[in-house]
Amino acid sequence: MRGTPLNAEMVILTDAPTLAEAAARRFAALVGEAMAARGRFSVALSGGTTPGALYRLLAARPLPWAQIHLFWADERCVPPDAPGSNYRLVAETLLADAPIPLENVHRIRGEGEPERAAREYERVLRAFFGEESPRFDLALLGLGKDGHTASLFPGAETLAEATRWAVPAAAEYEGRPAWRVTLTLPALNAARNVIFLVQGAEKAAIVRTVLADTAARLPAQRVQPPAGQVTWMLDIEAGRALAHG
Length: 245
Ligand code: 6PG
Description:
The chain has helices at about 15-40, 50-60, 85-95, 115-130, 185-190, 205-210, and strands spanning about 10-15, 40-45, 70, 75, 140, 165-170, 180-185, 195-200, 230-235. By secondary structure, the chain is an alpha/beta fold. The strands form 2 sheets. The protein has a 6-stranded parallel beta sheet, with helices on one face. It has a 3-stranded antiparallel beta sheet with strand order 4-7-6.
């Protein structure tokens, strides 16, 4: 696409399986780069319906799992075995098949009280990254039909958070659990790489708004790491409205 206002790279794939394949290749390439540079790879994963296919593909790849650390971009405040749990999604699609050491799995305790869970998660992040910033090698994000990403929703006060890395959040979205814990903009904007993975015709309108209407100031538009690369990976359905100008 002609330079997106967000200065992001964009890749459009023919269909959802091809999108998942391309995302798995991109993920593996970023793992390779991080391993060469720092000997470990840290990723913040998302929930929702989109990334499951990618996680399944990753589970089948011979990645250096002992050096890969999994975090979550957000979590719904439900127990880890509940159907709405983002941890559970990753457990079923990735952890079940990939040899990832338990100590590399840094989940958000969704079963806890949200404020406490957010503070606990921030402690985990600070222990891993140090006090300066959570420099994820990759933040893998989705996009809601309202422009939310992670659990940063339009108009929410979480968007104004300037110092904390993880905060509680509450939002109604498609009947999903309302209470959540989310990484903040300062945390996401410390990432080395951000991939937005978006598929389906129902996302076409919001993809166009996010990528073409800079005045909208939607949460997804505010993920712009000053020292990081943002890549939008879309299937053709999600990218459909972009072609018309
Ligand atoms: C969550 C997510 C959230 C998600 C979007 C898109 O916990 O719900 O992390 O930010 O990525 O809502 O969800 P879909 O992939 O289901 O469209």
